[in-house]
Automatic annotation (TrEMBL):
Pfam families: YceG. The lineage of its organism: Bacteria, Bacillati, Bacillota, Clostridia, Lachnospirales. Keywords: Cell membrane, Cell wall biogenesis/degradation, Lyase, Membrane, Transmembrane, Transmembrane helix. One of its GO terms (biological process) is cell wall organization. One of its GO terms (molecular function) is lyase activity. The chain crosses the membrane at residues 12-41. PANTHER family: ENDOLYTIC MUREIN TRANSGLYCOSYLASE (PTHR30518). It comes from Coprococcus hominis (ex Liu et al. 2022). This is Endolytic transglycosylase MltG. It comes from the Bacteria.
Length: 136
């Protein structure tokens, strides 16, 4: 009788540990997929901006011979982008890397990634846009 009890206890313990391991793996997978979805949204969403209500314009300087990483880190340090790495991917995917122009720009956290890319590549925002930011 005692042997049956020990075997049953081992089975229960093995089942409980296996269940905990599976729950932990499931939790990690959910977190990884949530992070991946959030990052993809930051890269591809057209209305993605850091803070829609913050219209305070910040002056950002893009130096000559700056890499994409340097430009995105400068924008992140200035507090105008939500995710510098997502902006880097967006610039790479859109082939905007060679179009970035050095200069001083006025950019607000309410600008979307597309608007920021338009500004730093020397373009201007649409006239019907409520925001204004031009290359100085």
């Amino acid at each position: 009788m005692a042997i049956d009890s020990a075997v049953t206890m081992k089975r229960i313990l093995r089942f409980a540990i296996g269940l905990l391991v599976n729950v932990f793996i499931l939790f990690i997978l959910v977190k990884v997929f949530a992070f991946g979805f959030s990052f993809a949204y930051d890269v591809f969403a057209s209305n993605n901006c850091k803070d829609k209500s913050d219209t305070k314009v910040v002056t950002v300087t893009v130096l000559p011979d700056s890499s994409i990483k340097d430009v995105c880190e400068t924008l992140d340090d200035a507090g105008v982008v939500k995710n510098a790495y997502a902006l880097m991917v967006r610039i790479r995917i859109g082939s905007y890397a060679a179009k970035i122009k050095p200069g001083t720009y006025e950019i607000a956290p309410s600008y979307t990634n597309d608007e920021i890319i338009t500004i730093i590549t020397g373009g201007t925002l649409d006239s019907d846009s409520k925001k204004s930011g031009d290359n100085k």
